[in-house]
Amino acid sequence: MSSFPESRMRRLRRTPGLRSLFAETTLQPGNLIAPLFVKEG
Q: pTM here?
């Protein structure tokens, strides 16, 4: 038995909108938020 998938979901990659929806996530420094610590007193 092959480990390669029988069906390749090409229909999910048909349009640019769907391709971007199913694309891998890219993390960039601009997407990060610096923590803010508040100390009472």
A: 0.32
